[in-house]
C-alpha cells in the first residue's frame, strides 16, 4: 500500500511489541484507553485496506 500507511504500520508494530511484552514479561503494560485507541485505529486501517483492495484488486473483495 506504500508510504501512505508507513506511520500506521509503525504504530501497529509498536502495539504488537507492547502486547508481546505484556504476554511474556509483565502485567498491566497496556491501559484500557490505549486498547480503545488501538481498536479505533485497527478499524480505520481495515477500511483503508478494503478501499485499497477494491480499487487495486476488486476480485479480492466480494460483496463490496
Which helices and strands, and how do they pair?
Blueprint: H1 6-24, H2 32-56
Question: What does it look like?
Answer:
- By secondary structure, this protein is mainly α.
- It has one domain (3-60).
- It has helices spanning 6-24, 32-56.
- The model has no long low-confidence stretch (mean pLDDT 83).
A few lines on this structure:
The radius of gyration is 15 Å and the shape is elongated. Helices cover 69% and strands 0% of the residues.
Key descriptive features of the protein:
single chain, 64 residues, mainly alpha, 0% strand
- Overall number of strands: 0
The number of helical elements comes to 2
Number of domains: 1
Order of helices and strands: HH
How would you describe the shape? elongated
- Tell me the span between the first and last alpha carbons: 19 Å
Amino acid at each position: 500500500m506504500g508510504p501512505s500507511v508507513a506511520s500506521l504500520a509503525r504504530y501497529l508494530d509498536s502495539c504488537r511489541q507492547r502486547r508481546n511484552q505484556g504476554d511474556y514479561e509483565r502485567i498491566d503494560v497496556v491501559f484500557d484507553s490505549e486498547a480503545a485507541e488501538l481498536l479505533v485505529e485497527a478499524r480505520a486501517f481495515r477500511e483503508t485496506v478494503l478501499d485499497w483492495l477494491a480499487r487495486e484488486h476488486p476480485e479480492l473483495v466480494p460483496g463490496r
